[in-house]
Specification:
Layout: H1 4-18, E1 23-28, H2 41-45, E2 50-56, E3 59-64, E4 68-73, E5 78-84, E6 94-100, E7 104-110, E8 116-121, H3 145-152, H4 159-164, H5 174-184, H6 197-227, E9 230-232, E10 259-263, E11 266-270
Helix pairs in contact: 1-6, 3-6, 5-6
The structure holds a DNA duplex (16 and 16 nucleotides).
DNA sequence: GTTAATACCTGTTCGC
DNA sequence: TGCGAACAGGTATTAA
């Protein structure tokens, strides 16, 4: 389930193989993922040099030499597989295949097809429907306690749901929403509007810490990608509450069983004692 | 205008 | 063992 840290890890892992490289092969193997590909998708990419690879929220952005920007979203099951040389055979759900002049092959594999690819230009990027309206990058100075508090003011929805709202802060998914709330000691059921002052400060800090630690953990797995055939998209990371229903709260003086509840159709994991 | 529910998709897990 | 139901979840769309 790629959230911001996983996407950042994928981006960093791909950059050495793609930045400054020319795409000599672009193969689109079905008409759509979550949405249809642009009609001229392969034509606009083939032969282009990639100038830079970067991330915005959960999107990977590849800037091409003519100003085109390839937008990639991994959805929830999207993976990018890197091989030196053409793969002997493609796997099921390999939907897009790219190759560089250096004979590096990259496959976008996405069983559930919640992923997406689209094209924009540097000029139209900010207004692109996938990117317009995104909130601040949580790891940047554009995100802080006061900014979060202002964004939550008046919101009559649980704080958990608000954290998943990409307009409030970009890049957080279900897992890191749970983890950040646990770390901040805030109940997922708390009204978003009531997260102000010191609580908003704690939550903003928790979001930054949880994401930064996950990126650091992902970075340590990148070394392995560079050696063996790379599968970018997931990495193992240990969570304090996510998917730990019934297990003991890790806070030393607590140890109570963690609970699960469903909020707007999503599982939330939390400790009723440590989170208020 | 805001918030909640639903659709999309398929591999995996669980209960019978 | 086999089968079907439930579940996972990011985001656009629809409903309330």
């Amino acid at each position: 389930m790629p959230e911001l840290p996983e996407v950042e890890t994928v981006c960093r892992g791909l950059a050495p193989f793609l930045e400054g490289r020319r795409l000599v092969h672009v193969e689109q193997r079905r008409p759509d993922l979550r949405w249809p590909f642009p009609a001229d998708f392969t034509q606009r990419l083939t032969g282009q040099r990639i100038i830079a690879l970067r991330r915005r929220a959960k999107y990977i952005l590849a800037e091409l030499e003519d100003g085109t920007v390839l937008i990639v979203h991994l959805g929830m099951s999207g993976r990018l597989l890197i091989t030196q040389g053409r793969p002997a055979e493609l796997e099921k759900h390999d939907h897009v295949v790219l190759a560089t002049e250096e004979d590096v092959w990259i496959r976008f594999n996405d069983a559930r097809r919640f992923g997406a690819m689209d094209l924009a230009t540097l000029e139209t990027l900010d207004g692109h429907r996938m990117l317009a309206g995104l909130g601040p990058e949580p790891l940047s100075n554009a995100f802080s306690g006061p900014i979060l508090a202002a964004s939550l003011a008046g919101k009559r929805t649980p704080i958990k749901a608000a954290l998943l709202d990409q307009r409030v802060v970009a890049g957080i998914g279900n897992i890191y929403a749970c983890e950040a709330l646990y770390r901040a000691g805030i109940s997922p059921r708390r009204l978003a509007a009531s997260v102000q002052g010191i609580r908003a400060e704690r939550l903003a800090l928790a979001v930054k810490q949880v994401l930064a630690e996950a990126i650091a953990a992902g970075g340590s797995t990148l070394r392995d990608y560079r050696q063996a055939d790379g599968e970018l998209g997931y990495f193992q990371h240990s969570f304090q509450v996510y998917d730990r229903e019934g297990l003991a709260c890790v806070t030393p003086e607590c140890g109570r069983p963690l609970l699960r509840l469903v909020q707007s159709g999503r599982s939330t994991f939390y400790c009723a004692r440590c989170q208020r």
